[in-house]
């Protein structure tokens, strides 16, 4: 046991402060109320917070309510005292208007809890999409020792002998429904088959991505991100995580020691190799800004674009979460990348060892699921960063560009990797759903579909709506995907080759606000450009006319938080954080409390 009184513990300012015996007695009396003894509270044992994201409102993370018991046992075993508390709930698919609105709210709440209460270290219970970045952002700001525990993915889904993956099956089901091959009940049953157990989405969506990246960043025990939620290994991992955070407090191993530039580069490289979500650049930018690391969007292309896809998980591939774990999970992927010199091996991790020490020798257990470099699934699997007169920055996940799309749009030998077409413009998801099947829009296989009003201000929090299915009549003709471009986000479980996260958004008067249906737009992936083919003068005139009308219109706020966040939220290319909050850094060390 390592529970000798540590004079540096910040919790001693509450429970063992001879200079302020009045307040100390008040703090003690109320925490004794919880059933702890005076002896325990004054023993110099580290107080470990368990930031609990599981609740009935958050089914993806609900299993953390069970895992917390094992975390507590680990904390107690190592000589710490556990205090569990709730984090503002975030559930990706159930929250209206979008869970994107809640990441910064959960962040704010957790910063206050970690800073303002007697907590020496914290276990971050991560899982569903936004929960992982929200918690890492808060840990980065406060900078007390912190370790993440993934709740783990659901078991694999099955339907008629085939794997059905979270989210991905919805996109497929929608096509079948639109084509009349499935009725509503059949559609619901097909979708439900993808969710056979507790845990988060079993595809390489944003949840699997962000938990894999939390491990790649060094914030999770090696090998732990991919363990499925119901597996016994998950319980054991919760116990080890609880033990380890107590040691981290004694070692004073903090997020700022782990979340370095090297760690973020590693995460970018890993993201390409796993075929990670297009939400990852937003969330990593946010975490980086809160810990004070410079991570421009262009780094995703510089370090990530050429890295091949090694992990064969839906939506880019075939398999699901259980297969990923059995094949070796994150360490097996990192080992392959180390073999090519693509990983900064010296980056520190929560177990006190470097990522190189942890992963160098990790084997692949199933080469169908995790590939070696001589059998990659796709050569350049990272993101392209695009720019032009419609936005300053947007990204495209090239790993999901299918053969059908490639042959239709990207195979002109005279003009490789480039195409152009007329734009159809939708103002938000409601407008799209109302009009998409209207034959008078005359959408053809050449049309480029634009979604605007879906950014952090326009659709507060930024909606996951850029990937749009074509009209039903095109689907029945076999055109299942048109190019989509927009200022919103895209679900990580979607296999659509969209250009998204366009910043600045229409609601911030970015170029998309000036686009009109019928304008011709040219996309050149080799040059990294997206341009509407009209003159600068015409664009300036449209800008002036829209300004005169009060700017790009977007719906009124429905809640106080929507209004407050809209005033200060930044754009997707820089993390969509609460602008100004990034100046509060390492506040456990710098803002007065010990
Ligand atoms: Fe929660 Fe996918 S909806 S993890
Ligand atoms: Mg999502």
TrEMBL record:
Residues annotated as domain Dihydroxy-acid/6-phosphogluconate dehydratase N-terminal: 45-358
- Report a single Gene Ontology molecular function: iron-sulfur cluster binding
Keyword entries, A-Z: Iron, Iron-sulfur, Lyase, Metal-binding
- Cite the Dihydroxy-acid/6-phosphogluconate dehydratase C-terminal domain residue spans from the record: 369-576
Signal peptide segment = none
SUPFAM superfamilies per UniProt: IlvD/EDD N-terminal domain-like, LeuD/IlvD-like
InterPro entries in alphabetical order: Dihydro-acid_dehy_C (IPR042096), DiOHA_6PGluconate_deHydtase_CS (IPR020558), ILV_EDD_C (IPR056740), ILV_EDD_N (IPR000581), IlvD/EDD_N (IPR037237), Sugar_Degrad_Dehydratases (IPR052352)
The protein's superkingdom reads Bacteria
Q: Which family does it belong to?
A: Belongs to the IlvD/Edd family.
From the Swiss-Prot or TrEMBL record, give the protein name. Dihydroxy-acid dehydratase
């Amino acid at each position: 046991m390592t529970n000798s009184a540590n004079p540096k513990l910040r919790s001693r300012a509450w429970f063992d402060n001879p200079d302020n015996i009045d307040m100390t007695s008040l703090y003690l009396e109320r925490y004794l109320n919880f059933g702890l003894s005076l002896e325990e509270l004054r023993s110099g044992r580290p107080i470990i917070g368990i930031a609990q994201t599981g609740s009935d409102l958050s089914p993806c993370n609900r299993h953390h309510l069970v895992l917390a018991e094992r975390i507590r046992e680990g904390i107690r075993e190592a000589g710490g005292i556990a205090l569990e508390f709730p984090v503002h709930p975030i559930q990706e698919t159930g929250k209206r208007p979008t869970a994107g609105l809640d990441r910064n709210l959960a962040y704010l709440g957790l910063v206050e809890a970690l800073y303002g209460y007697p907590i020496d270290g914290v276990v971050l219970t991560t899982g569903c999409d936004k929960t992982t970045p929200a918690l890492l952002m808060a840990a980065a700001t406060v900078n007390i020792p912190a370790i993440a525990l993934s709740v783990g993915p659901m078991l694999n889904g099955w339907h008629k002998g085939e794997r059905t993956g979270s989210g991905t099956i919805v996109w497929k089901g929608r096509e079948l429904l639109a084509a009349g091959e499935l009725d509503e009940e059949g559609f619901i049953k097909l979708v439900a088959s993808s969710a056979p157990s507790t845990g988060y989405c079993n595809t390489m969506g944003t949840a699997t991505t962000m938990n894999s990246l939390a491990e790649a960043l060094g914030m999770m025990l090696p090998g732990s991100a991919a363990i499925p939620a119901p597996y016994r290994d998950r319980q054991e991992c919760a116990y080890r995580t609880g033990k380890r955070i107590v040691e981290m407090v004694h070692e004073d191993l903090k997020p700022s020691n782990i979340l370095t530039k090297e760690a973020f580069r590693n995460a970018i490289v890993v993201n390409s190799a796993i075929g990670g979500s297009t939400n990852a650049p937003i969330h990593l930018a946010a975490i980086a800004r809160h810990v004070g690391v410079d991570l421009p969007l262009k780094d995703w292309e510089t370090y990530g674009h050429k890295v091949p896809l090694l992990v064969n998980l839906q939506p880019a591939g075939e398999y699901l979460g259980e297969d990923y774990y059995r094949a070796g999970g994150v360490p097996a992927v990192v080992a392959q990348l180390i073999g090519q010199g693509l990983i900064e091996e010296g980056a520190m991790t929560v177990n006190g060892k470097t990522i190189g020490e942890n992963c160098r020798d990790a084997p692949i257990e199933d080469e169908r699921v995790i590939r070696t470099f001589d059998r990659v699934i796709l050569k350049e699997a990272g993101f392209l960063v695009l720019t032009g007169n419609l936005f300053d920055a947007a990204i495209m996940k090239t790993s999901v560009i299918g053969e059908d799309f490639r042959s239709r749009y990207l195979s002109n030998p005279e003009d490789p990797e480039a195409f152009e077409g007329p734009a159809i413009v939708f103002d938000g998801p409601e407008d799209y759903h109302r009009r998409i099947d209207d034959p008078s829009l005359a959408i053809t296989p050449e049309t480029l579909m634009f979604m605007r009003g879906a950014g952090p201000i326009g659709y507060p929090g930024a909606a996951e709506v850029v990937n749009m299915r074509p009209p039903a009549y095109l689907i029945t003709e076999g055109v299942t995907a048109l190019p989509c471009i927009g200022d919103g986000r895209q679900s990580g479980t979607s296999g659509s080759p969209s250009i998204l996260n366009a910043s600045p958004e229409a609601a911030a008067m970015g170029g998309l606000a000036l686009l009109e249906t019928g304008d011709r737009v040219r996309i050149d992936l080799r040059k990294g450009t997206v341009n509407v083919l009209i003159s600068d003068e015409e664009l300036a005139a449209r800008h002036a006319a829209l300004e005169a009308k009060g700017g790009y219109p977007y719906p009124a706020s429905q809640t106080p938080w929507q209004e407050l966040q809209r005033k200060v939220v930044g754009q997707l290319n820089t993390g969509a954080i609460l602008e100004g909050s990034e100046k509060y850094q390492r506040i456990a060390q710098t803002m007065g409390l010990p």
